[in-house]
Model the fold of this input.
Amino acid sequence: MFDELYRKLEDVETLTELVAEDPDPELQAEVAVEEKNLLELLENAEIRSMLTEPDDHRNAILNINSGAGGTESQDWSEMLMRMYIRWGESKGYVVNTLEYQEGEVAGIKSCTLRFEGPSAFGYLKAESGVHRLVRISPFDSNARRHTSFASVFVFPEVDDTIEISLNADDIEMQVFRSGGKGGQNVNKVSSGVRLIWTGKLSDGRAERVVAECTEERSQLQNREKCMMMLKSRIYLLEREIQDAARSHLEKGKKKIEWGSQIRSYVFQPYTMVNDHRIELKSTNIQAVMDGDLDPFIKGYLMATALSD
Done:
């Protein structure tokens, strides 16, 4: 990346010298474009320099669950799903839906997305927490304002470089008919897989971890991906134990728990997205819902780096 930055800086300097000799409007426009590209590269380099944790380079698994409120929260969860997919695609990540449960009327009860690409977890870890929506409900005939919640949980994907050993006796496997996306086959055959691990973590704490996968038509393939998600979640729990013991990662960090909202999205009576952790606000709520999350991610990473 630094080689690319150096080359881009040289290009800008060369063009600037040419403009000084010949102030051609087309050349000036080209300089403006190159300067903008250079600033974007610098910003990306700045953000990447903050991704120093052991798992920041890994792929990310992002889980969304609707909160209390039925249809309202389920619709909000689907809006968040679309927002993250758009963000991932804009960054060049490969985004796959591993699990998807439709709501009864609209939206989704839950979904699990996989982001494949450089430092996906490093960026998306900033999104873990409770997200709050305030708007005039499209499902309320009296056009009243409603508040809805959805939780987002992000964890790094376990790969072959990480050894996670689980006792088979501690894992319960459930199969079910998949609903929603995937074609007719997934609705007729019990291809969906749910794995439930009940055991003790390294600190002696009893834990119950659940993972589901409905992406594939094959039950075997879903089981393999489900096992990967299960190991990834347990791995993150163990990492949190290690981090707490070392203390330095816990400074200034909010726990991920229901009720501790990290961000509010207000559609009425005004438009505002507010990240409560860093008090960063944006009035362009449509851009945010279309995946423009970089200011919030960068702000969170900078605040975390400064608190260490």
